[in-house]
């Protein structure tokens, strides 16, 4: 279900039964029966043009005796004025097991449309891996993106780096992607 009331968009979804890992809205672990419930709220603030606030929650309820329930929370704020957009996002994952490995994520991004053809953006994200039996580790990811459009051709580039990948201290990953897109 999805509908908008006075600037507030409400989205609701529910799927039940079946085995996980076999379709949309399901979780990990083949052979486990689960139901998934989602709701998302999006509000375009009328007093501040260009400001949007959004929140969502997803719950995966495992039906197997003694199984945990996964809960995801995600909220963000986006403000756009002229050629600049600035965003902030915060999210959590809890697997429902006492003393389990939960995660928290915080991200910031800024995008600037230099003109109709050229845009730049920068994003950074910190993801905390909670380790109840040891030391928490924070994965940090940074990326710079650029896009240039000329007629039916778009050139794009992404340059990114991540430290403590997957919550493992000392593991780094660098990513560079260049692409050309042609519209016919």
Shape: globular
Oligomer: single chain
Proportion in β-strands: over 45%
N/C terminus separation: 36 Å
* Mean of pLDDT: 86
Number of strand elements: 11
The main β sheet shows up as: 11 strands, antiparallel
Structural account:
- The protein has 184 residues and is mainly β.
- The protein contains no helices and eleven strands.
- An eleven-stranded antiparallel beta sheet has the order 1-2-3-4-5-6-7-8-9-10-11, with no helix packed on it.
Keywords:
184 residues, mainly beta, eleven-stranded antiparallel β-sheet, globular
Summarize the structure.
This protein is mainly beta and 184 residues long. It is 0% helix and 64% strand.
Give the topology.
Layout: E1 2-5, E2 8-15, E3 34-44, E4 51-62, E5 69-81, E6 84-94, E7 103-113, E8 118-129, E9 137-150, E10 153-163, E11 172-182
Antiparallel strand pairs: 1-2, 2-3, 3-4, 4-5, 5-6, 6-7, 7-8, 8-9, 9-10, 10-11
């Amino acid at each position: 279900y999805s509908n908008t009331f006075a600037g507030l968009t409400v989205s609701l979804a529910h799927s039940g039964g079946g085995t996980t890992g076999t379709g949309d809205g399901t979780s990990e672990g083949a052979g486990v029966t689960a139901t998934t419930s989602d709701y998302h709220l999006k509000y375009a603030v009328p007093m501040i043009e260009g400001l949007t606030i959004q929140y969502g929650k997803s719950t995966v309820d495992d039906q197997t005796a003694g199984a945990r329930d996964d809960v995801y929370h995600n909220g963000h704020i986006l403000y756009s004025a002229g050629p600049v957009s600035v965003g902030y996002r915060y999210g959590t994952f809890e697997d429902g097991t006492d003393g389990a490995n939960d995660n928290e994520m915080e991200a910031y991004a800024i995008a600037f449309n230099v003109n109709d053809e050229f845009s730049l953006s920068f994003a950074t994200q910190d993801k905390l891996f909670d380790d109840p039996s040891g030391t928490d580790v924070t994965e940090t990811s940074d990326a710079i993106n650029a896009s240039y459009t000329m007629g039916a051709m778009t050139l794009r580039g992404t340059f990114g780096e991540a430290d403590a990948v997957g919550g493992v201290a000392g593991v780094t990953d660098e990513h560079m992607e260049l692409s050309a897109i042609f519209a016919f």
